[in-house]
Amino acid sequence: MKKERLVAFTDAVLAIIMTILVLELEKPEDISFEGFWALRSNLFAYMLSFFWIGSLWIALNSIWENVERVSGVVAWWNVIFLFFTSFLPYATGLVSNNFYDREAQAFYGIVVIAASTSNWILNKLIDRPNSDNPKLLMATKGYRMALLPDILLKVVSLILALTVYPPIMMYGVLFCCGYFQIAKAIIYRRQKKKSQV
Predict the structure, then answer these.
(1) What would the DSSP string read from start to end of 13-79?
(2) Half-sphere exposure of residue 170, counting CA atoms within 13 Å on the CB side?
(3) Phi and psi dihedrals of 126, rounded to 5?
(4) Is 165 helix (H, G, I), strand (E, B) or coil?
(5) Quick one: pLDDT band at residue 123, thresholds 50, 70, 90?
(6) Max CA-CA distance within the chain?
């Protein structure tokens, strides 16, 4: 399979998922500040999910720029990654309407953790057919180094959401979004310095 076809397919599926997110948004009963304020958890869930998928898309594109070959295993793990990610509009709808519900937040957390974990595995498997590409190997290694603590933080958030305070799951994902961007920038900066030496 050509890389371009897989990237185009992934881009299309992620774009559809992001579009479905906005279709799930509730409309305010009253078009006023109070009407929108009443939907704050709905809007927060949408915003978080939208930017989480957006950051995934940006990260995937930065990795895939250096990919030269795609194996069947990589294509299948990409499908698995997209499968878990496609649950996000459904999970977002659940938490936006049941923000303080333990099970709704747990489902959201499981979806995000499953998508993040399958993304980590996908980025590990990309290395195999591209083992002669040191630039890609460095990029995927850095990406996985940033992603592993991200996954662990999401698991901790899930445990706390189940045992302490349900919205911790979504706040944990928000925190992870910020952490991941900072960690990725630091790791890539270090790798760039090493490659220049």
Answers:
(1) HHHHHHHHHHHTPPPPSSSSHHHHHTTHHHHHHHHHHHHHHHHHHHHHHHHHTT-----HHHHHHHH
(2) 29
(3) -60, -30
(4) coil
(5) very high
(6) 61
